[in-house]
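It is worth pausing here to work through a concrete case rather than discussing structure prediction in the abstract. The textbook approach is simple: state the sequence, then state the predicted structure, then interpret. We follow exactly that order.
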Amino acid sequence: MRLRTLLGDHPGTAALKNGSIASDLVSFDFVDFSPTNKGFRPMVREQAFDVSEIAIVTYPMAKSFGKPMVLLPNVAVARFQHAYALYNAKQGTLTPADLNRKRVGIRSFTTTTGAWLRGILANDYGVDLNSIDWVTFEAMLPNSRIRPSARRRAGRSFRCLSTASSTRCSARKSSTPT
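Step two, the predicted structure:
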């Protein structure tokens, strides 16, 4: 059996991808998406792969839309999410409590990083998530026509460039209508 497979290049997938671990029963036809998360949308919408790495929050969203997916108990990659909350330093020092009743931009309401950060803000810092005006830059994965209520698309998108020494974000006009 040959399986069309989407897996990123991670330490835990290297042996499978380079063939040092193999099976007489199953072979993998690896598809290249860079970054890997660009393959999540075709996986969810079209079931484009037989096996796919996928963000943990993407899975329950896909299931809620009736997508025929099965979750395998394997973590391909994980990271500590706290460092991915950024703000404009020109606004001065902000604390998590300062986000209450503010406009906050996130790439998509359904990303794993966004879900973790919302949980951290609410559970660890007491932020009232319902008081925030959430602005997204991408539609939900399974069905772009349906978005969570009280969420809206942004008219600008932000590009964040991270290096070992600094993170810079710049805004640019989005071609996507708001």
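Step three, interpretation. Residues 6 and 52 are 5 Å apart (CA to CA). The chain has four helices and eight strands.
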